Amino acid sequence: MSSEFEFLDRIRKKFSLGKTGDDCAVLPKDSKTDMVITADMLVEDIDFRLDWGRTELLGHKALAVSLSDIAAMGATPTWAMLSLAVPERLWDSKLLDSFYESWHELARVHGVELVGGDISKTDGKLVIDSIAAGEVPRGKAILRSTASTGDPIFVTGPLGGAAGGLKSLEDEMFQCFFPPFGTLRLTLKQLQPTPRVEAGKLLQSQGLATSMIDISDGLSSDLAHICRASGTGAVLHSEKIPIYEFLDEITHDPGELLDLALNGGEDFELLFTCDRKKISAAKKAGFCHIGEITANEGIVELIVDGETRVLTPAGYSHF
Amino acid sequence: MSSEFEFLDRIRKKFSLGKTGDDCAVLPKDSKTDMVITADMLVEDIDFRLDWGRTELLGHKALAVSLSDIAAMGATPTWAMLSLAVPERLWDSKLLDSFYESWHELARVHGVELVGGDISKTDGKLVIDSIAAGEVPRGKAILRSTASTGDPIFVTGPLGGAAGGLKSLEDEMFQCFFPPFGTLRLTLKQLQPTPRVEAGKLLQSQGLATSMIDISDGLSSDLAHICRASGTGAVLHSEKIPIYEFLDEITHDPGELLDLALNGGEDFELLFTCDRKKISAAKKAGFCHIGEITANEGIVELIVDGETRVLTPAGYSHF
């Protein structure tokens, strides 16, 4: 039996689904503009659970994961489509109404228009295919493959919150008691992520980013994607990695906190390499300088307390 | 409990999924071109069955249903995306390899490029979201809403074959014996439909069609869609409706044959209303003149042996 990883690898290659190797496919629109487009297939009990409560946030999250891909290209989102396979047990529930409301609430924030999609019944699980498109000046989409040795590495915000939220949601205690404020904030990082659309546009328009990806799998995995695509390595300074403040609700152990920030997925912050001449502008914009790109192809190193170790990608390898 | 129809209706309105009321959404591309885009969600055991055999044709069908939507707008297909939710039982089967092969075989015929998509695991059914886009001269996409009273009604080819194929596939006898040639042809109409892309482009470029839809639900239902969108009625002449030749493998009863042609879905022929001045060009191109648009809003009539009866849409109402 293939492992998930072998299956993923084989089928991605077969179907060219990772063809562009980027968060979105880039297609010419007109003489001045490229269109970027992405699809995210979300499956009940794999990518989300209905028994977590707060199902009213599911529409938000479905759109957010796709807008995050648009943001990672430095593009401005424009329109979206939704395809749903809906089991009969949900037809009369309030779930789809609230799905719709939270989807549109986020869409309004970013001026995204729902232009189409499809709906089918299923006798299996709820499946959502979220498709979103955006625009970027011609030839200016920010790719994963364009990092250079010496480029400083940045993230747009603190990490580990969504993974901490997942831990809280999976903790049965959380289901029984009214959670403390910090725990609630953690769970919202998981259930209601903020796509960093404005940050992505800023990084593109000011020419700050030389390469970019959104952190969906986890910092260690997503940085490895950039290194693989760019033919480089990287070094991270552990003390510079920003850790989501409310993680202290679930642990005070520095190793565990670092692990959540390095390997926790779905924070949907942007990870980018910066034009060396513009490092101060990136810092001024509030982004965090966490390391540098190296010539050490395929190797990501982590410096902890002055000691260097090789960092293995250990983020969530979803399909 | 809502019926499928009530649920469909409610959720389509909520999500504006039928917003444009057409087979595709139409979006401006550049000053000379519109982009059309469609998504089709295909669910195992709802839209297809793996125990029908010939699963190697599933990739063909997934792309064909979307190309048929592109054809119905008079557009030229350009690119596509595929999102798959795949249960573990299929990871090591040959199904995905053959899915890939038959998808690409049809894509090559129409010059369609696979630009992206997503893949997720599922512990439910196999789900395929097929997304396809095309291009049409600006403002020239053929809509459902532009039929006028007096316009002749045409179909591009014979009807009922796919429904006959479905009957054969559901017949257990078919599973046991090697089918006769005619039955095989019927099942291929169901499993390997031909999207009428060239016909759609011809109808658009020569200005023949005043409105158009593809026959996915069935002639009676799809003609009702045109009438509703255009605020018209229609009259069909039963003896003019072309019936797929190999249907005589399963019945010789004229009423049953007519029923299959009127109400059988998934033939993926194009149903269009014709510019009255160009009726002879449409006939010369080999298309079949089957009726006329009337002012009798919302009423589709059928003339059988000189008697007129009201035709109720009775095609397959999928989601």
Describe this structure in words.
Two copies of one chain form a homodimer. With 319 residues, chain A is an alpha+beta fold. The radius of gyration of chain A is 19 Å and the shape is globular. Chain A has helices spanning 4-15, 58-72, 95-109, 161-170, 172-176, 181-191, 197-205, 219-230, 254-263, 279-284, and strands spanning 25-28, 33-43, 76-87, 113-122, 127-137, 152-155, 209-214, 233-237, 270-274, 288-294, 300-304, 307-310. Chain A starts with a helix and ends in a 9-residue tail after the last strand. Chains A and B meet through helix 1, strand 2, strand 3, helix 3 and strand 4 of A and helix 1, strand 2, strand 3, helix 3 and strand 4 of B.
Roughly how many Å is the radius of gyration of chain A? 19 Å
Oligomer: homodimer
The biggest sheet of chain A amounts to: 7 strands, mixed
Low-confidence parts of chain A: none
Task: Please give the structural blueprint.
2 copies of one chain form a homodimer.
Chain A: H1 4-15, E1 25-28, E2 33-43, H2 58-72, E3 76-87, H3 95-109, E4 113-122, E5 127-137, E6 152-155, H4 161-170, H5 172-176, H6 181-191, H7 197-205, E7 209-214, H8 219-230, E8 233-237, H9 254-263, E9 270-274, H10 279-284, E10 288-294, E11 300-304, E12 307-310
Parallel strand pairs in A: 3-4, 8-11
Antiparallel strand pairs in A: 1-2, 2-5, 3-5, 6-9, 6-10, 7-9, 8-10, 11-12
Helix pairs in contact in A: 2-3, 2-7, 4-6
